Amino acid sequence: MADITATMVKDLRESTGAGMMDCKKALVEADGDMEAAIDWLRKKGLSAAAKKSGRVAAEGLVAVATQGKKAVVLEVNAETDFVARNDAFQGLAAGAVVIALESADIEELKGKPYQQTGRSVQEELTQIIATVGENMNLRRMATLAVSQGVVASYVHGAIAPNLGKIGVLIALESSADEAALAALGKQLAMHVAAARPEALTTTDVDTKALDRERNVLADQARASGKPEDIIAKMVEGRLRKYYEEVVLMEQVYVVDGETKIKDVMAKASKDLGAEVKLTGFVRYQLGEGIEKTADDFAAEVAKMAG
Length: 306
Known about the structure:
Number of helices: 12
Strand content: 15-25%
Number of domains: 3
């Protein structure tokens, strides 16, 4: 009997979209033969996802869940926005994000038991794929936690409780009143949803991105014909503007349009009588980073047209 490795199971799972345990069983039945295992899954009706696994899934839902001083955001993708409004898909997203609270990463989440169905989260998703007829996947998740204080969450474009197009988490470390912290956190999360920061502080800005920006600004300044010492000052001045665009603590608060977030935090500490630290944030926007081709869009339109 062939030795069934974790890599073999992973490869079969990625090529078919079937559940981990189903893939392992298929490989055992096929004595390690990948093609025979795929056929076994097809015969069992578990390969309905296989034909769809190559199609781009850039729609779907972003879900959030909180528990005590911890919160998680999860992105579950599908091919069309229509499916995002399907009750079964929404139920899966809502159920999976709660399970994600106790999962270290997306791979662990996929293998966790899903409610009382007897299947894993990934296997449950595979069943929905077979029923609905679209490629779907559990794409990514992120967790924030604090030792004291709150982790606030916000969903923009919600189509159901805690399910929408943009999900944000804000971690506030403080001994101040939790209700007040939660209200502040909700407003900060709404700011993040709108302002799209890339880093928490200036020291958190990606080094490569900063170097690229510095080079662009330097070339722009040189075009003015100014001497190098003046160019250096021009670049630093323009970098401050760059930080105001991408760094959360340097951004202007969208709520009042004039106060920087770092000053909002200072004022909150004073008003609440205890230091309030914004220790982290996460912003997930549905489909960001997933490329759709013209053919993908055409296929989606054709599918929606029936």
